Structures are given as C-alpha cells and as structure tokens.
C-alpha cells in the first residue's frame, strides 16, 4: 500500500515537473513571438481599422497629420519618419507601444543606415511599467525587423522613398 | 520473524510497482525529449534559425516588391528617354525585340544610353537595388547579390505597358559561417507603367523625318478624362474643336496603334487590346459630318493621316470636318504649319470659317 502511494507520488511529481517545463517553454515562445506579433499587427492593420476612438491617432486624423487612413500603421510610422516629422513619429509609436501587455518591455526604432542607436520609444520601468527593467538590463531580448520602402505619391514619374529598417524589441 | 510466502509476494509487488512507476517516468521524460529539443542550446538554436528565416523571408518579399516598384520608375524614365532619342534621330526602333533590347540597356546594362531626359542616377534600378542590399547587409546581416538578365515590354492596356524582368538573386545569411539559410533563385517580376506624360514616339518619328515642320509638333500621351461613348453627347456637341486641340488621347480598341506599336514605327497598327488615338474617329462625328462617315470609317486622323503625309497625296481632296474651326481656336492649336501644309488648311470664301481637309489613298 505504501509502495503504491510512493509510486503514485513519484509519477505525479514527474508529471508536474514536465508540465511546468512545457508551460515555461510556451511562455518563452509567446515572449519570443511577441515582437514578431506586434510587427505583424503594425504591418497588416490599416489605420481606419485601428481602434482610435480617442487618443493620439484620433487627434492626428482630426489635425490632418494623418491624411490617408488606408495606410497601415507601419506605413504611417515610416511616413512620419521619412518626412522628418519625428515628433509625430514618436507620438504615433508611443500610442501603439502602449497597447502591449503591462508585463512586457518594448522599444521601436527606425534607421535608414542599419544602425539603430536611439529608439523612437522605449517602454520599461522608467516609463511606468513596474518590474520591467530597461532593455540594457534584460536577460533576453526578442527582436523583429522589417525593411520598409514607401511609394512616393506624385504626378509624373513614379518613385520610391529610400528604404528604412524598423525594429521592434520586446523583453521582460 | 518468519517470512511468509504471502509476505514475499506482497514485498515483490511493492518493488514491482516502484519499478513500474520509474519506467513510466522514464517513458514520459523520453517522450518529452523526442517531442521537442530539450537542451537550452537546441532551443536557442531553433529560435535563432526561425528568427533569421522570418527576417530573410520578409526581406526577400520586400526586395521583390521594391524591385518591381523601382522597375516601374526606371521603365517610365527609359521610355521617356527613348522618345527623346527618337526625336533627336539617335534611335530608330523597328521591332519589339529591338525595343526590348534597348529598354534592357537603358534600365540595367548601359544606363548612359538613356540620360537625355530628367533621369538621375538615384532613380535608376541599380541604385535602388544597391540601396536595399546595402541596408540589408548593414542592418539585417544579409548578403544579397542581384542581377537582371532580361527585360521585356508588352502592351497591357491602353496607355499602359507591362515590363517583365528576369531577376537572378542569391540571398544568404551573413550572420554565421555557414549561414542559417540561403536562396538561389531565378524569378520574374512584372510591373505596369502608365505612359501618360511621355512623348508619343509616333509623333517623334514624324517630327524627326519632317524637318520642315515646326518644332511645336510634339505631343505627350494625355488621357482624356471621359469615355469614348461620352464624346458624341457632350464633348463634341459642345466643343469638337476643343477636343481636337486638347492633345488628348482616348482608348480605341482595334483602331489605333498601341504604345509598343508606336515605338516600333507601326503606323497603321490597330491593337485589339490597347489601341489609342489622339483624335476621335470621325465616324463618331457623324451627326456633325455625315458626308464623311463612309470615307473615314476605321481610320484615325492623327494616327494615320497626320503622321503619314504620303496618305495626303491624293487628287480628290475632300473636306472631312472641323468646319467650325475659327480664329479663336487658332491660338491654342498645336501645329500651325502642319495644319496649313499637311491638312490643307483652307481659308475659303468666308475668312472666319476654316476647314481641315484630307483624303485617303
């Protein structure tokens, strides 16, 4: 009887160990894909389909800083950057980054030469997210990168803007 | 203490059950081991590979789209340059194959051939691709080698041509010695080019050969903002001369030459998919010019008569229309010399009413 009990305890303990291993791995996977998911949302969501009932984006549309709501979030962000409108680019990126879960640190950076020194936004404990260390102190950072090239709308010769890299980093 | 048979059996059952429990545990761990890589290093490697492949896949998608967009820009400028070269008598193109070769040279292998019009190095396809591959190497650690081996042009719609490039690319991960992934492939990229704003080469050939004609005879593709079916009712009823002088073109299936036909000196081409005309078929004006309906059926004045002066070499000149051409309109006309000398501009008994005459051989 006692042996059976001990055997059961061992089996249950093993299952618990295995389950916790899988769970932590799934959490790590979710974290791993968080940056990619965030980038995917920016890449595929048109501004008009983004919930902007209030806040920065609604104001930008009202002020005509955003002229075309058919652009995706990523396109609009790069458009601000290409136009050297860094104030709006930062505000826009902040609006998007603030929608990420509280337990995640996130930064968004754009560069035209491949070197991303200063992100547009970085949300961590210094930005009111408790327990989220700065990226420099994080044990693991996950990154998603895209090269983005915008068409320049003008009469006559069609053209494109210089390509830029957008990088999203997430950490916990 | 005496050991009974029953006690021995009970004791062995305990050992057996314990061994069974251990066997189940080993099986579970072994199963977990097989199901996913278990070591931290393996997991990290798998994630790194996944990340690199995602980055490279996205880069490849962007590269192809960017190449197509840049091909559109370069193609537009190349066609613009070719029209200028034709006008300056530096180029004569007689076949579609020759047009393909010249476009390929202008866009990729010999860009100096096409530097007449307002093109600069930073609008070239090579520049755009180099920009992209440099950024990919610096920012994404991806090596890319791109080559374009062929470019063809075809009519795709009135006022529109399709450029198709054969692109050979070698993309590899520069992040490690062997790299996580690499692509060596050949693919085709197509893009359409709207020719509006480019000088009509058919006019440029005519201009070039008829040196006596005034320099005002140039005409850029300019699409009329209305459909052909609207012409009778609105435009021509109110202002037939206005359309004639607007230098606009309309789509004209199976009647006018296409863009490619115009570049290859196909004067009488009648493209089934992509014909355009710079002056409406005069049959469209039958309510105004009934007497000439039969005479002008299936012909385009500008494309066939204006450009091919030999067709005016006839004995029985007939008035074909535009009798409302008045002094007021002359100030906006495109080609005074051509009007007077090619169309046989007639200032008849009434000096305020003019006729354009033409005939068909």
How would you sum up this structure, described in words?
The complex is a heterodimer of chains A (172) and B (361). Chain A has 172 residues and is an alpha+beta fold. Chain A has one domain. Chain A is 42% helix and 17% strand. Chain A has a four-stranded antiparallel sheet. In chain A, a hairpin with a 6-residue loop joins strand 4 and strand 5. In chain A, helix 3 packs antiparallel against helix 4. Chain A is elongated and about 90 Å long. The mean pLDDT of chain A is 84. Chain B is of the alpha+beta class and 361 residues long. Chain B has two domains: 42-194, no CATH class; 201-358, no CATH class. Chain B is built from eleven helices and eight strands. A three-stranded antiparallel sheet of chain B has the order 1-2-3. In chain B, strand 1 and strand 2 form a beta hairpin. In chain B, helix 2 (40-87) crosses helix 3, helix 2 (40-87) runs antiparallel to helix 4 and helix 2 (40-87) packs parallel to helix 5 (201-209). Mean pLDDT of chain B is 69; it is low at 209-217, 232-237 and 280-361.
């Amino acid at each position: 009887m006692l042996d059976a009990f001990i055997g059961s305890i061992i089996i249950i303990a093993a299952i618990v160990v295995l389950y916790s291993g899988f769970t932590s791995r799934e959490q790590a996977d979710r974290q791993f894909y968080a940056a990619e998911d965030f980038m995917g949302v920016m890449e595929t969501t048109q501004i008009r389909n983004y919930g902007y009932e209030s806040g920065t984006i609604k104001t930008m549309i009202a002020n005509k800083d955003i002229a075309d709501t058919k652009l995706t979030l990523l396109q609009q962000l790069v458009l601000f950057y290409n136009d050297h409108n860094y104030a709006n680019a930062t505000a826009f990126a902040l609006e998007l980054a603030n929608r990420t879960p509280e337990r995640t640190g996130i930064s968004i950076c754009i560069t035209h030469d491949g070197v991303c020194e200063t992100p547009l936004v970085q949300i961590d404990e210094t930005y009111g997210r408790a327990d989220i260390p700065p990226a420099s102190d994080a044990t693991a950072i996950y990154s998603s990168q895209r090269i983005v090239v915008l068409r320049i709308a003008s009469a006559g010769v069609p053209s494109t803007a210089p390509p830029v890299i957008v990088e999203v980093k997430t950490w916990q | 203490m005496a050991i009974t048979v029953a006690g021995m059996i009970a004791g062995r059952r305990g050992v057996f059950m314990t061994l069974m429990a251990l066997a189940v545990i080993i099986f579970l761990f072994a199963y977990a081991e097989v199901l996913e890589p278990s070591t931290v290093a393996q997991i990290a490697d798998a994630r790194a590979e996944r990340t690199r492949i995602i980055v490279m896949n996205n880069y490849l998608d962007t590269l192809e789209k960017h190449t197509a967009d840049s091909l559109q820009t370069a193609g537009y400028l190349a066609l613009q340059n070719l029209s200028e070269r034709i006008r300056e008598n530096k180029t004569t193109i007689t076949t579609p194959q020759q047009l393909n070769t010249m476009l390929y040279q202008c866009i990729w292998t010999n860009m100096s051939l096409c530097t007449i019009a307002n093109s600069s190095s930073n609008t070239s396809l090579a520049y755009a691709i180099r920009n992209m591959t440099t950024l990919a190497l610096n920012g994404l650690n991806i090596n890319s080698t791109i080559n374009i081996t062929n470019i063809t042009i075809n009519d795709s719609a009135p006022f529109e041509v399709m450029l198709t490039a054969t692109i050979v690319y070698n993309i590899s991960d520069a992040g490690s010695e062997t790299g996580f992934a690499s692509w060596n492939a050949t693919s085709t990229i197509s893009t359409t080019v709207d020719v509006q704003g480019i000088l009509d080469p058919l006019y440029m050939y005519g201009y070039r050969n008829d040196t006596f004609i005034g320099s005002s005879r140039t005409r850029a593709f300019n699409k009329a903002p209305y459909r052909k079916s609207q012409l009778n009712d609105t435009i021509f009823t109110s202002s037939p001369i206005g359309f004639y002088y607007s230098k606009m073109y309309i789509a004209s299936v199976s009647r006018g030459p296409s863009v490619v036909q115009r570049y290859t000196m196909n004067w009488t081409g009648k493209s089934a998919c992509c014909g355009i005309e710079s002056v409406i078929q005069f049959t469209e004006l039958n309510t105004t010019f009934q007497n000439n309906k039969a005479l002008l059926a299936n012909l385009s004045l500008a494309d066939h008569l204006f450009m091919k002066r030999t067709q005016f070499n006839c004995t029985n000149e007939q008035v074909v229309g535009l009798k409302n051409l008045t002094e007021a309109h002359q100030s906006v006309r495109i080609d005074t010399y051509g009007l007077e000398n090619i169309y046989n501009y007639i200032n008849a008994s009434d000096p305020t009413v003019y006729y354009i005459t033409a005939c068909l051989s």
